[in-house]
Amino acid sequence: MTPLRQRMVEDMQLRNYSTGTQRSYIHYVGDFANHYRLSPSRLGLDEIRNYQLHLIEEKKLSPQSVNCFVSAVKFLYTVTLEMPWSEEHFPRLKVPEKLPQVLGASEVMQFFGCIGILKHRAVLMLCYGSGLRISEAVSLKVRDIDSKRMLVAVRHGKGAKDRYTVLSGRLLLLLREYWKIQRPRDWLFPAIKAGRHIQENTIRQICREACQMAGITKHVTPHMLRHSFATHLLEAGTDTRAIQVMLGHSRIDTTARYIRVSPQTVGQTVSPLDRWPEATPPNRGAVSKTKSPAG
């Protein structure tokens, strides 16, 4: 590892960046340096701009991926290399706003009916039943399941934030059945290799296989189960701020996008026009010369 890379890693560790973010930033900066075959300390704003265009026009990366590169080099140059560059020097692509795709209630039942291994079913049910990210579900510990208060403790979630979310009674029964068979001690879902938890990619593969077996045409992922958790709660009348807390969103507008996903929620909204009293008198000062809608 070069001294510059080591310094960048240490700077991220000092700011409590997640290991996933650290890997991502090092990956993008490494590709940037390899492209020019020079140390990033010898490259500048022109090279950053040209490489960004290279990612867009030649490598055809998504706006999200290009913006990840921008975040990585911004950290490198403004924090590690202490360059006096502002936000304007690091333009970002506008990301198209897409509605999250969700499963219907019947599709959820079909999906879980095709997962035979109890351990795998429990992990994915935490994504749907408690709204966990896959990284949060696989890294749970036995002590994080609070059966007395019916809560799941999420420790060091996204942004290194702790939170609680709901524990389903049905899910608790499944977890107890699983615990009696597996007897996990530390990690709730240990890997075959001692001292580690089950890998995210293992669960993603299980997700793909169950989706095919269930005959679901949507591209089902663990994160789609989390989206479905939020949407189904909203349709059941759960307060948006409660959903925000359970999902671990910092901003309410991130949670509010689920309102747009759920036509049922929109359809149940009462127009302010329909809140008028039944015997609202007409405006006597106004005379309409047009025909009524019924006429």
Radius of gyration: 25 Å
How many beta-strand segments?
A: 3
CATH architecture of the largest domain: Orthogonal Bundle
CATH topology of the largest domain: hpI Integrase, Chain A
Head-to-tail CA distance between termini:
81 Å
**Number of DSSP helical runs:** 13
Helix content: 40-55%
What is the string of SSEs from the N terminus onward?
Answer: HHHHHHHEEEHHHHHH
Question: Mind telling me the CATH class of the largest domain?
Answer: Mainly Alpha
Give the strand content.
Answer: under 5%
User: Major sheet: order of its strands?
Assistant: 1-2-3
Overall morphology: globular
Uncertain stretches of 5 or more adjacent residues: none
Q: What does this molecule look like?
A:
The chain is mostly helical and 295 residues long. It has two domains: 3-89, DNA polymerase, domain 1, CATH 1.10.150.130; 105-267, hpI Integrase, Chain A (Orthogonal Bundle). It is built from 13 helices and three strands, in the order αααααααβββαααααα. A three-stranded antiparallel sheet has the order 1-2-3. A hairpin with an 8-residue loop joins strand 2 (151-154) and strand 3. The radius of gyration is 25 Å and the shape is globular. The mean pLDDT is 87.
